[in-house]
Write a structure and sequence with these properties.
There is one protein chain. This protein has 153 residues and is of the alpha+beta class. The chain contains three helices and eight strands. The strands form three sheets. It has a four-stranded mixed sheet with strand order 2-1-6-5, covered by helices on one side. A hairpin with a 6-residue loop joins β5 and β6 (101-107). The longest helix is centred in the middle third of the chain and has 10 residues, at 54-63. The radius of gyration is 17 Å and the shape is globular. It starts with 11 loop residues before the first helix and ends in a 9-residue tail after the last helix.
Length: 153
């Protein structure tokens, strides 16, 4: 399922002609991956970190939704394919070293984490050196994922 292009009708010819040379500027690791940070386009909150390969990043741009590379399953992972919590792409950025991608996204459903929380960064280190949960579960993961016990998309 793709999203409408951010280009206007007059820009569509340019869009079709765009090549993937921009992918050459990325410093992929030895496995052909690059870390990708998903950030809420409206609040600036960091939602999650995942990995992308060349194909997933290219498809993310083409489909205007976050598509990652699942290292554990060794396959493309369209964020929200199981949960419905799709990340609609608004902007792609590359860091100064060319080795980290930032995706500014609209998090559909308001849940990015497989634990049912808005963000995967829901624990904060307190003054006693202990991790404290700071975010409530918005939806029980068992109600989000199928009965196979998926703990992560």
């Amino acid at each position: 399922m793709g999203y409408p292009s951010p280009f206007t009708a007059n820009d569509r010819d340019t869009e079709k002609q765009m090549n993937n040379d921009w992918l050459e500027e990325i410093k992929w690791d030895e496995k052909g991956l690059v870390p990708a940070i998903a950030q809420d386009v409206n609040t600036g909150r960091i939602l999650m970190v995942a990995w992308m390969n060349r194909e997933s990043l290219s498809l993310t741009y083409q489909e205007q939704r976050a598509i990652y590379w699942s290292r554990s399953r060794a396959k493309l992972w369209r964020k929200g394919e199981e949960s419905g919590h799709v990340q609609k792409l608004h902007e792609l950025r590359l860091d100064c070293d060319g080795d980290v991608i930032l995706l500014k996204v609209e998090q559909l459903g308001g849940i990015a984490c497989h634990t049912g929380r808005e963000s995967c960064f829901y624990r904060k280190l307190d003054e006693q050196g202990e991790w404290q949960v700071t975010d409530e579960v918005r939806k029980d993961p068992s109600a989000i994922y199928d009965k196979q016990g998926s703990n992560h998309e």
